[in-house]
Amino acid sequence: MTSRELSPGERWYWIIDQLSTLNVCARVRITGEVSAQVLRSALGALQDRHPLLRTAIAAKSPATAAGGPRFVPTDRPIPLREVVRTEADEARWASEVDGHELTEGLDRRSGPLARAVLISGPGQTHDLLFTVSHCIADGTTALSLLRQWVRLAAAPSGSGAGAVVRGPLPEPFEALFPERDAVGAADSEGAADSEGAADDAGEVGRLEPERFVPFARRRTRMLHRSIGADALDGLARACKREGATLHGVLAAALACAVARDAKAESAAPFAVGSPVSLRDELRRPVSEDEVGCFVSALHSVVGYRPDDLWSMARFIKEDIPARKKRGEQYGVFDLLAVQGPSSVADSEPFIQYIDEHGPFNFFVSNIGRFEFPAELGGWRLSQAQFVGGISVVGYFGSSVTTSHGQLSWNFTHIEGAVSRERAERIVDDCIRTVLSAGE
């Protein structure tokens, strides 16, 4: 495996991860007999299959003193940490994610850019966590790697590993961008005039921090929530009836909660972010099992309608495809290639501008329905989900996975900028709004 320089997008994630940890974590519950030794062996097999899981990041080229940061080979195995929980500590996995996996960085210099946790409890119940750097993974990647790891571990002895030819590092995903016209503002009709759009073209509402937290001191904290099968079915029926999408409802509910927290007036405009997958629109389709961060982010400026969630949801449903049609999902990468910082040392003006003037600072990252086995060998699997960190690109976010018959909604906030009490208030408002919509 050779080394290669980080692309502009990868370099951006590498820079902000040094300021404030930017990890992506996937989780699944296993009921059945689990062996740490087997899991370690399966991690080795997983690492053999993916070159990016066998890398570290060198700040400069190992051959010269010049050049930008590079992926370089490492022979260090993916570490597996073991945790034992008591029967009363049912949510230990959430506290591990909140207190360690999202806050403690991976060893970028020594690698690898991933780690794992086995949490074992009474009654043969276990939680597996797989944490990976955002430089090489999005939410889909993290869940896919967890799924591959579980399948390798569940395979009959000797059949999961097999002979693997270690291939080269994959090319940067920017190299897979389709041919496209320059992003412009010409096609501004349509979504901006749609039902639910903001009436005010002036200042756009954002989530205001309670206090400024220096970039290097920002820490992502998590609050876990879920919506069960019956409520999820009711919500799906309501979306069909109202001509909306599930993502539109979730994003609208979060925008409403932020607006209510700000005591905003009706029709006040708020910008909510929506990370979007690029896997199906690149020069070649990129499968879920390929390692990389294949996402961008778009924003919708939606008018706050305290008594009409559905018009907001329908607007977001129409707005995101319209923005994608104009190619806006690629604009951030054009910006990073031309104006992006090259290191932490020169990053502060760029990051400060995004912090103060970026298009959004709260978002809903929804990967939709993710197929994860419910049974493997003698194991029963449930509650598969992911959660991503925030670092310095916002103050409040959420990660949504629909799998195993439930919707897992993991909310994140920057400690200090958004107090725990305030975060819980916004989260509970979101959940109430969504559940009411599905009734």
Give an overview in words.
With 439 residues, the protein is α+β, with helices and mostly antiparallel strands. It has two domains: 4-154, Chloramphenicol Acetyltransferase; 194-437, Nonribosomal peptide synthetase, condensation domain (Chloramphenicol Acetyltransferase, 2-Layer Sandwich). 31% of the residues lie in helices and 23% in strands. The chain has ten helices and 15 strands. Strands 5-6-7-2-13-12 form a six-stranded mixed β-sheet, sandwiched between helices. A four-stranded mixed β-sheet has the order 8-15-14-11, with helices on both faces. A three-stranded antiparallel β-sheet has the order 1-4-3, with no helix packed on it. Helix 2 (36-49) crosses helix 4 (139-154) and helix 6 (246-261) packs across helix 10. The longest helix has 18 residues, at 420-437. The radius of gyration is 21 Å and the shape is globular.
